[in-house]
Design brief:
Length: about 250
């Protein structure tokens, strides 16, 4: 009898652990930190602005997912963030919708002061798994190194306890949910602060509609044309190239 009780207890414990291990719908809060001063150029006008802003631009985003679909959007600013409004607008307007079953993404970005909707297939990211692990928001995560936009490295931590293969912004494609990423060339990190299973703060998961949408290729052509005369001032060609690259990387992140 004692052995039977032990067996049943072990079975229940295993079943409960299994149920806790695989999560297919939840709301995840991310803290996003960007070292704005390092991103900014070093001309005299910009140096004056740096004196009046905080080192970090810190905001919070909400990632809602269910039925293998997700939406990631801005929630609020940290009270410690002191930056001009024009540095906030792009963050507040950006929305990422992904349908992993159909392999489709629908993204809203504010570019050139205009809301632009991208409709395209989900981009493939090259990933290399490592043996490094860390805990994020109570979940054991494994480190992976990815490459986006051909030459921008992303350091990610994902958990296979959460089944969706998504992550912040358009970063995805690992065997589970990405709860932390760092993008050194954009001086930015995304880190999950909590995972809520009751979905009280859930956002409706649906694509955005627009009369005009762009594929990735079409948007690259548009941006290239509209910015052909940008970043041509001054003698610091290296800095101009850096600023141009960051603009392009952020447009498609």
């Amino acid at each position: 009898m004692k052995n039977i009780v032990v067996y049943i207890s072990a079975l229940l414990f295993t079943a409960n652990s299994y149920a806790q291990q695989f999560i297919d719908k939840a709301v995840i809060e991310f803290e996003v930190n960007t070292n704005l001063k390092k991103k900014m150029s070093n001309d005299s006008w910009t140096e004056q602005i740096k004196e009046n802003i905080s080192d970090l631009k810190t905001s919070y985003y909400i990632y809602t997912f269910e039925d293998n679909k997700s939406i990631f959007k801005f929630d609020r600013w940290s009270e410690k963030t002191r930056i001009p409004n024009y540095e906030k607008e792009d963050d507040e307007e950006s929305i990422w919708y992904f349908d992993f079953t159909s392999n489709k993404m629908n993204i809203q970005k504010q570019i050139f002061g205009t809301k632009i909707i991208i409709n395209d297939s989900i981009a493939n990211i090259e990933w290399r798994l490592t043996n490094e692990n860390r805990e994020i928001a109570g979940y054991n995560c494994r480190k992976a190194v990815g490459k986006i936009m051909n030459d921008v490295y992303v350091f990610a931590f994902y958990t296979d306890e959460i089944t969706i293969t998504g992550g912040p912004c358009s970063v995805n494609g690992l065997p589970g949910m990405i709860l932390g990423i760092t993008i050194p060339r954009l001086y930015t990190s995304y880190m999950a602060t909590k995972v809520t299973l009751n979905r009280e703060k859930a956002t409706e998961i649906k694509p955005l509609e627009a009369k005009k949408t762009y594929t990735i290729t079409e948007l690259k052509t548009l941006i290239t044309e509209k910015t052909k005369d940008w970043w041509t001032y001054g003698d610091d060609k290296e800095e101009n190239t850096r600023q141009k690259n960051m603009f392009m990387w952020e447009a498609f992140l």
